[in-house]
Fold this sequence. Notes:
Chain B: Keywords: Amino-acid transport, Cell membrane, Membrane, Transmembrane, Transmembrane helix, Transport. The complex is a heterodimer. By secondary structure, chain A is an alpha/beta fold. Chain A has a single domain (4-16, 46-69, 109-270), classed as Rossmann fold (3-Layer(aba) Sandwich), CATH 3.40.50.300. Chain A contains ten helices and twelve strands. In chain A, strand 4 and strand 5 form a beta hairpin. The two termini of chain A are 29 Å apart. Mean pLDDT of chain A is 89; it is low at 1-5. In chain B, 80% of the residues lie in helices and 0% in strands. Chain B has helices at 5-43, 49-63, 67-77, 87-112, 116-124, 129-159, 171-182, 186-214. In chain B, helix 1 (5-43) packs antiparallel against helix 7 (171-182), helix 3 (67-77) crosses helix 4 (87-112) and helix 6 packs antiparallel against helix 8 (186-214). The longest helix of chain B has 39 residues, at 5-43. The model of chain B has no long low-confidence stretch (mean pLDDT 93). Classes of the chains: A alpha/beta, B mainly alpha. Chains A and B meet through strand 8 and helix 4 of A and helix 5 and helix 6 of B.
Amino acid sequence: MSADSNLSKATANPAVDGSELIRFDRVTKRFGANTVLDSLDFTVSSGKHVTLIGPSGSGKTTILRLLMTLLKPDEGTIKVGGEYLTHEKKGEKLVPAGEKHTREVRKNIGMVFQQFNLFPNMKVLRNVTEAPVHVLGMSKEAAEERAHELLDLVGLTEHVDKYPTQLSGGQQQRVAIARALAMRPQVLLLDEVTSALDPELVAGVLDVLRDIAHTTDITMLCVTHEMNFARDISDDVLMFDAGRVIESGPPEKIFTEPEHERTREFLSAVL
Amino acid sequence: MKWNWNAVGDFMPMFWHGLLVTLEALALGSLIAFALGLIWAMAQRSEHAAVRWPVVGVTEFIRNTPLLVQLFFLFYVLPEWGITLSALTTGVIGLGLHYSTYTAEVYRAGIDGVPVGQWEAATALSLPRTRTWSAVILPQAIRRVVPALGNYVVAMLKDTPMIFVIGVLEMLGEARQFASQTFQTIEPYTIVGIAFIVIAYPASLLLRALERRLVR
């Protein structure tokens, strides 16, 4: 995959100025009696690659699902690009957002899932063109041209006419990455994208993501257990425990000289 | 009683006519059941309780009352309200309406069977709700339930003789008429019985084959 310039062209984003793109403000999420996120604050600047690490059940995936509006926060607010995600302003008051408002803000966010979640009734090409055509209003031709570019970048040129079930897990996940990028999101959410893959297929998917991280200015939020990958691509690593960020910093620091005892324990268990 | 081949020959023209009416009622009734059932199933998932509850009420009511009663009701009560339909039309509507409450359950199971990840992917791509239904959920849901829908077509076939009670001359009606005119009973009723099994049994086999292909 030589085409760095192609990739940045294919994923061209609004200019990155390092300004704040995502803000969680005192966000609390409970499942029944279990408080998964406890009054969480954090921000991500545009263009940054942030990896969330921590033991399972510590709330990492919940953060991605809140951003994707697959879950609603019980308390607090989330802003993306300066706009409230699940709320909207009515005069001075903040009220729960309507479907239309949420959809507009959400268009800036793309997500790749652990289980790929490709549409099995559509061929690979249509998986990638479906949303650009029906959400962004692109012409079929333009969407297909772009889908071909993206599928080329993830190394699946020969597979455009296959159905997802005819592909390996690694190939399916790369289609899912192309599908998310086709919407030109400002933010890409990666939810344990290699956890469901056979070990020999992990590297291919991570290579594609490294490429995207190094050659585009897309903002990435990543939940992963692949610590080497996290070290390669991250600007910042956030260590979660029990719904709180207990430590954060650049990967060199977190992975080599963590301050917090829980971080040390966690890293020694996974590294 | 003796089997009379002449009676068989005499009955056949009426039989063919009856068969045609039976198949016509079955085809149109199935179309209504397929379309209306889908509407019920989707309405039952509406976020508005004002849509959901009336639909649940109506479908439960229809499913739990006999088709025969519904046919009489449609045939004798609707004209009182100024709606006059032919016997066949009434029969088709009755069959379709009754079976739509069964197909609604079939669709519901099919929709519930679509993995939640499909809804999530549609949300992540911001697909509009109508597009999510038409391009993602329903194609997967319906594919799974085609065999189950087919089973209800076979069941409906076996219920078509009921529309004879409101005067539709389908197969049974023709047999009955022939019998009352000629006093030959064995031949027409036997032929009608055989006709049902000749249609229904291959249809069941076909559905089983379809099930192996579609439901994986």
